[in-house]
Structure formats: C-alpha cells, structure tokens
Design a protein that fits this description.
The complex is a heterodimer of chains A (374) and B (470). Chain A is built from 1 helix and 24 strands. With 374 residues, chain A is mostly beta strands. Chain A has 3 domains: 2-159, Sandwich (Immunoglobulin-like), CATH 2.60.40; 162-257, Immunoglobulins (Immunoglobulin-like); 260-370, Immunoglobulin-like (Sandwich), CATH 2.60.40. In chain A, strand 23 and strand 24 (361-370) form a beta hairpin. Chain A is flat. The termini of chain A are far apart. Chain B is elongated, with a radius of gyration of 24 Å. Helices cover 26% and strands 17% of the residues of chain B. Chain B is α/β, with parallel strands linked by helices and 470 residues long. In chain B, helix 1 packs antiparallel against helix 7 (303-318). Chain B folds into 2 domains: 8-289, Metallo-dependent phosphatases (Purple Acid Phosphatase, chain A, domain 2); 325-466, Orthogonal Bundle (Flavocytochrome C3, Chain A, domain 2), CATH 1.10.1130.10. In chain B, the strands form 4 sheets. Chain B has a 7-stranded mixed sheet, with no helix packed on it. A 6-stranded mixed sheet of chain B has the order 9-10-12-13-15-14, with helices on one face. Chain B has a two-stranded antiparallel sheet with strand order 1-2. The chains are: A mainly beta (374), B alpha/beta (470). At the A-B interface, strand 5, strand 7, strand 10, strand 15 and strand 16 of A face helix 1, helix 6, strand 14, helix 7 and helix 15 of B.
C-alpha cells in the first residue's frame, strides 16, 4: 500500500503517466492526485506583512506520514509547520522525522506562510507564483530517502506607493579612507499616489548624510558617504513622506577600504620552474592592479623590499614592473617575473611604497610554487 | 516535546542583511528580549554554511536569487561579531577544470581575505577533485577531516581545528560517513577511520570544558543514527546533507545534542548561538537569507569579493575553460547531434512552435546578458555553467563546442529534449526519438528550470508555451 501512496503523491509534481510507462508527449496540465496547497495573497502593499494558514489533512492519506519540514522559494517568504490544539496552544514540528511530530488526537497540522515585505526594496513586484513543498517522511523509513513533497504554491505581488529610481538601495561600493562617495536617486509617487511629497531624510549612521531636493515632479535624494572604520557598513535611510501610513526606508551599504589597494587581492601566487628565469611570455597572468586612492599624492608606486617569510631578502629573484592603465590614471598593473635563485616553493611578500622608507606601504603576499620545466 | 518559540525579528533593528528574515529557533535568545538577563558569557556566535556546490554567486537567470560569496562576506563584515565562521564543505559540485578554478577562488575569499573562515569540514565532492589541485588551492586553509589519514604530505587536512574564543576552548572536527570509494583503502590516497575513532582523534588533548563541534557529511537519517555513538557528546553537530536545501529554522536534538543542517548553495546561512549550562548545550539560531538588490548592479555584495569573482570569470574566459569541458562524453544514444534546422524538414509544425519560443533564442539571451553591464559585465558566453543550459548537447561529443564551430547547436533546440538525431535522420521509422534519458518531460525541464534558476517554473504553465507534437 505504501508504494502506491508514494507513487500517487509523486505524480503530483510530474505528469499523469503511470510509473514505468515510456515517456509520452506531455498533457497541457497535469491533474495532480494530491492537490497542491494554493493561496493567492493578491497584491501586498509594500511594507505590509501577510500570512495564510493551510490545514494539512494528513488523515486523508491512507498511511501515516510524519511532517518533516517545509520549503518555499521566495526571498520575502517564510513558512513553518505547527501542531495546534482546539484551545489554540501549539507546538512546532521538529525536523527529525520522529513520531512525536504526528498530530495527537486533539491536534491538527497547520502550514503557515508569512510574506513580509517590510525590508524589501520599495519596488513593485508583478504578481508571481512562488513554489514550495511540505516534506513528509514515512515513519518506518530508516534512510530518509522515501520522502514525499506536497506542493505548495502562493501567488502574490507587491505594490510600492513610491517610485525610487534608478537606485532603490544606495550601494556606495568601495569608499577609500581619503574619499567621500556620492549617490543620487529620485523619488516620486506612483500612479495611485501622484501627489506624494517627501520631507526630511535621516540616516541611522552619521557617516551617511542625506538631503532631499524637490525638482519639478520628482524629489532628488542626494547621499554622501564618509568611509568610517575600515570594513563593511550598512545604514538605513528613512524618508518622511505624505503617503498615509507608509514608511519609506532605503538601505545604504558601503565598504571602507584603505587608500592603498591591490585588486582583486593583495596576494599573487604562481607556479614557475625554479631553475631558470621566466621568459616575458610566461608572465602574462602574473599581475595585480595596484591603486592609490589618495589624490593628494602622485599615483606611482615603488618597490620597498621583497622578503621571504623567513626574513630572507628575495629582491634578486624577482623583477617587478608597473604599467599605467589607460583611462585609469591612479591604477597601475604590477607584473612580477621570477628571475631564478630559489630552490623550493617560497612564500614571502612584496612591499610597495609611496615614498621610500617613509611609506605608506602596501604589502602584497607572494607565493611561488615550484613547477616542472615544461 | 518542548515547544520552540518562533518569531520574526525585523532586520532593521540589527543592521543585518537587507530583507533577511531572522527566524528565531531553539532555546530563547534571552539577550534579544528587553529586561531579560544578558547573554551567557560563554555564548558563541557561529555562522554556519555548507554545500555551496560551486555557486560562487547567483547566476542571474531569475530575479530574487539568494546567496553568493559577495553577499555572504558583506553580511559577515557588517555583523562584525561572529566568533566562528564555519563552512561545511562541498565547495565545488564537480571535479573538472572549472571546479578547480572555483575552489581556488572560493579559497581566496573564505581563507585569504580579512574575515577568514575558522574551519572547512571538507566534503566528498571537494575530495573528489584532482589531489594536486585540491591540495594546492586549500594549502593554508583550516581544512578539517578527523576521520581521514592521508598518505600525501601535501594534504592540508587536520584532525581538528582548535580555537580560543574569549577564553572558551572550542574544538572543531569533521566526519565523512561516505567518502568517495576511490579515495579510501589500502592503495588509495586516504585511510578512512571509523567515526568513533575519528571523533576521538578530533578531541585529542581537549578537556571536558572544551566546546565540541563536529561537521558530519551524510544523509540526515544516518547522521542522526551516528550521533549517540559520539562520545563525549558534541555540543553541536552540523549536518551537511544536500537534501537540506535550506537550514531549518527549528533545530533538532538527538538526545541532548543539538543538530542543525547547513543548507545548500550558500543561499540561506544559519546564525547559531551556542552555550552550555547545567542541562548541556543550549542553542538558538536564526536564518540568514542573502537577497540581492534589484537596482544595484550585480545585486550588491562586498565590492572586494565581487572583484575576486570578476577576476575568476575573466580567467575562465582567458583560459578557455569552456573548450576543456565541452564534447567530453559520448552521447546517451550513441548518435550525433544534427541541429534543429535539420528537424524542420519533416517536423515543420513542431519547428514553428520552437521558433516562436524563448528556447530558440536562448543563446542570444546569454549574448544580450553579456552586453548588459548592470546585470553582468563579464563574459557570460564563455562561462560553462551558463552555457550549459542555453545550448544543445553540452558536454557531449558532437554537441555544442562554441558559437563559431557549432552555431546550429546554440539555443535550446529540438535535440536538447529529444536527444541526438543522426540515427533518427538515417532511419526515422526504426530510430524513433523520445525524451532524452527516458525521463518524464517535467523531469527533463527541471534540469535547467530548477528551484533556483526558474523559481516560478510550473510545468503545466510552461508547456503550452512550447507545445508541439501530438
């Protein structure tokens, strides 16, 4: 009996064909033996949260199946399984497949789906279908391989009352310590709120300053970012507006980086035959881009020293050259060529400087792996 | 059974990842509630992930895709207070040249930047990589494999990682329930210890006060069966089972041992708070989905990690990795690919349906994406993961090679679903074509239209768009 139930349920995600039959041209729409859980949330106003509960009729199955977990493909959705008594008390399904997750005589199994648009970007989402499934496990299944997935489909759209273009998140990217970053985006009411107006904007991080300037039928939001401490940052910009009950919040993100940078990483590793110097044609991929963001200094770098992790001077073993990148005046390509003199895989660093021994310095990790001479 | 409180915590309160939904689970996160006593001093905050399977970043096929290393490291950087960053392994999904480059790139990001991961519980897919590449790219990384003893001195794995977190000793081990058979045995690269022995090895020199964390790779039922045999009992087991697409918002316990699963593809991470009291280990956790911005080019994320991934993309093109992974395997039916134009001769109606469909210009979709710097800005048409779903016969002999050599196989043509047609062409009555691989049509579709790349894909909805034949 169990296999027949399993087959029946599996067909819900496939087609009408019986198992073992040769594949056939597909029907226009499969008629599932076990109907998916479906709900249409309609269009959710941005900033709102909606939820819906499905009663899961486990007793409609001809065998006992233990609820295990639920999955939903939706970045603003969350679903859970809970067992509820008539008095409203409830417990959550623990995803271990144990029989204690079966409903007691006075309990029912509920699937709750929550869609929360609070922290989404204020962007309309056309009505779409998100899918998911409830996983059930047979109580006698020792391997967990004979599970079934009960389909779940929810339809919803999101309507933001304002139009924020071109950026609904202010991502300043890299902000070097000596620099400030600036972004501009525009705000206006959507078609249902054409007379929306906007007031003061405040940021949760003092490193982001924001001003709102009306410009005809739109408002310009100008944001200036100071780097702050090195590392990643996130702030929230809240903009007063005239749409009743609507809280307009935009995320701002940035990463404060040093003025001296090697891109993509301050590390260069390559393989080379150690018994000889590399030819020019062998070093095409042995480069990094180095940049000095501080415009008060000239863009050029020089090599201060090349040393091994054991303190050895390795300067005689490498030639380092710099080539300015066209149209990127503060960036140079730093290419490294091995000149010979090493006997084993070697780790060390190339230390670049802006001004001799006074620095500042940009250390770049260097790893040369011993390779056979082709 | 103990009830588990579940609550939605607005992320705006904690400057966490945009739109992430923190779903509280397990024991109460007491310090999150005002007026309640502060956090236990020995509490560890741990970020758990695993089974990335080569997803360095979302492919961009669908909007709203979660995950990616750039968003992950941005989240880590913004939080600034994780005590431990734990990656459960299976960083790669295969063992080819693209996978090697992905492993190198991921290793750079996870172990070579400012927020270095504390442990990598290496998975069977990572192990299946060619040893020279695997050992080279993971050299210096905190690779843990408690139940593997290697013969190769270059093997970077250790029996455990030991950390001291604010005076709390933490031991991290990793066990593989089913290592690749070819890699273990008397003549093979590794000797595989029984789990109990591997666990003892992981705890060598530790004390009762040491917090014990272990990755276990395997099917979840097998992981649950194993846990009681691990003595002394772990404080936390992180299961790495590809069947868990996302971590659960509700942790399991086996006896008193908390068990969580890492999820797959790095889409949703798990934020775990762990401490020990008189009743044993106590756990609270929250899901950390990694959504992107719809308006920020590339969806956002740590700009330095984005640079590293961009360098990877460009290197894949420079090294012409595509040429190394196409046309490797024999076709499933032994015939050769002929191209959709050939099918048209006899199947005009079906061809008309194909020509009107998006499948017919699937290759152009990649070309257009490549030209769109806001969404991509890298050589999409040279990246094998992208190309594989936009052409016919990827990876198979006589299949797509490149656009210049095999323009007739660019796009999702007839033979993508029906298989190579040369034999059918020679004798249509004798060599009928069905569905490639003998699977149901809907199963074939989801090879590309999976939950991540086509999250809204419903077979019944989409079939009418390409309906043809009987």
């Amino acid at each position: 009996m169990r296999s027949s139930v399993l087959l029946l349920l599996l067909l819900t995600t496939c087609s009408r064909e019986p198992a073992g039959a040769p594949p056939q041209d597909p029907p226009v729409r499969a008629t599932p033996a076990l109907q998916p859980f479906e709900h249409d949330f309609g269009v959710i106003p941005h900033g709102a949260s909606r939820q819906h509960e499905f009663a899961i009729p486990l007793d409609a199955l001809d065998e006992r199946w233990v609820p295990l977990r639920v999955h939903i493909d939706c970045s603003c959705g969350h679903a859970d399984l809970r067992l509820r008594k008539p008095d409203g008390s409830e417990r959550f399904v623990i995803p271990d497949g144990s029989l204690t997750n079966l409903p007691a005589a006075d309990e029912r199994l509920w699937l709750r789906v929550v869609l929360d648009t609070t922290d989404r970007e204020p962007i309309d989402l056309p009505t779409t279908t998100s899918q998911g499934y409830v996983v059930l496990q047979h109580p006698e299944d020792p391997t967990g391989t004979a599970r079934i997935q009960w389909p779940l489909r929810v339809r919803f759209g999101i309507d933001a009352p304002v139009v924020v273009r071109p950026l609904a998140t202010l991502d300043f990217g890299r902000v070097p310590l000596s620099q400030r970053a600036h972004l501009v985006t525009t705000l206006r009411g959507d078609e249902q709120h054409p007379s929306a107006s906007f007031g003061a904007a405040t940021s949760t991080d003092p490193n982001v300053e924001v001003e709102i300037v009306p410009d005809g039928e739109i408002w310009r939001l100008r944001a200036t970012c100071r780097p702050g401490d090195l590392g990643n940052h996130r702030a929230q910009i809240v903009v007063e507006n005239s749409v009743p009950g609507y809280r307009l919040a935009l995320a701002a993100t940035w990463k404060a980086v040093p003025d001296l940078e090697a891109v993509p990483l301050p590390k260069l590793s390559f393989r080379a035959p150690l018994v000889r110097a590399q030819r020019e044609d062998e070093v095409a991929a042995q480069f990094l881009v180095v940049v000095d963001h501080d415009t008060s200094r000239p863009p050029e770098f020089a090599v201060a020293r090349i040393v091994g992790d054991d303190g050895r001077d390795l300067a005689a073993s490498f030639a380092v050259s710099f080539t300015a990148l066209p149209a990127e005046s503060r960036r140079s390509r730093m290419t490294v060529r091995y000149l010979g003199g090493l006997t084993a895989t070697t780790r060390g660093s190339i230390v670049l400087t802006k001004d001799g021994e006074r620095g500042p310095f940009l250390p770049i990790e260097l790893v040369v792996f011993a390779a056979k001479d082709p | 059974m103990k009830a588990s409180p579940v609550a939605i915590v607005p992320l705006a309160l904690c400057l966490s990842t945009l739109a992430a939904t923190l779903t509280q689970c397990g024991e109460s996160r007491a310090d999150a509630a005002p007026g309640v006593q502060g956090p236990p001093p020995d509490r560890l905050r741990i970020l758990v992930s695993g089974a990335m399977e080569g997803r360095l970043e979302p492919c961009g096929c669908a909007s709203g895709q979660l995950g990616g290393l750039a968003r992950r490291m941005q989240h880590v950087g913004e939080q600034r207070n994780y005590d431990l960053l734990l990656e459960g392994g299976d960083i790669v999904g295969g063992a080819g040249p693209l996978d090697a480059m992905k492993l190198m790139t991921t290793s750079q990001v996870l172990f070579g930047m400012e927020h270095r991961y504390d442990a990598l519980g290496i998975g069977p897919r990572d192990l299946a990589m060619p040893a020279a590449d695997r050992n080279l790219f993971l050299a210096g990384a905190p690779v843990v494999a408690s139940d593997l003893v290697a013969k190769d001195p270059e093997w970077p794995g250790q029996a455990y990682v030991h950390k001291d977190v604010r005076g709390v000793a933490v031991r991290i081990g990793s066990l593989l329930l089913a290592p690749p058979p070819a890699l273990v045995g008397p003549e093979a690269e590794f000797r595989h210890l029984p789990p109990a022995e591997g666990w003892r090895r992981a705890l060598e020199g530790s004390t009762e006060a040491t917090r014990r964390i272990v990755f276990v790779h395997g099917a979840d039922a097998a992981i649950r069966a194993l846990i009681p045999s691990l003595q002394p009992a772990p404080d936390l087991v992180v299961g790495v089972d590809p069947g868990w697409i996302e971590p659960s918002p509700v942790p399991s316990r086996v006896g008193k041992v908390p068990l969580v699963f890492a999820g797959t593809r790095g889409r949703v991470l798990l934020d775990v708070w762990l401490h020990r009291d008189a009743d044993g280990p106590q756990i609270a956790c929250a899901l950390v989905p990694l959504p992107g911005s719809k308006t920020v080019p590339g969806g956002g994320g740590d700009p330095q990690v984005k640079d590293v991934i961009l360098a990877h993309r460009n290197e894949v093109k420079a090294e012409d990795v595509l040429a190394k992974v196409v046309r490797l395997h024999p076709t499933k039916n032994g015939a050769a690919y002929v191209g959709s134009e050939t099918c048209k001769t006899c199947h005009q109606a079906a061809w008309d349906a194909f020509a009107k469909s998006k499948h017919s210009h699937a290759w152009q979709t990649l070309v257009d994406a490549e030209k769109d710097p806001k969404r991509y800005g890298w050589p999409v048409t040279a990246y094998p993961d992208c190309v594989s779903c936009h052409v016919v016969g990827f990876g198979e002999q006589t299949g797509f090679a490149d656009f210049e050599l095999t323009p007739h196989l660019a796009g999702v043509g007839c033979e993508r679903c029906h298989g190579p047609g040369s034999d059918h062409l020679a004798n249509p009555a004798k060599n009928k074509l069905g569905i490639l691989g003998g699977v149901r049509p809907s199963e074939l579709c989801v090879q590309c239209h999976d939950f991540e790349q086509s999250p809204t894909f419903l077979y019944g909805d989409k079939w009418p768009l390409i309906q043809h034949g009987r």
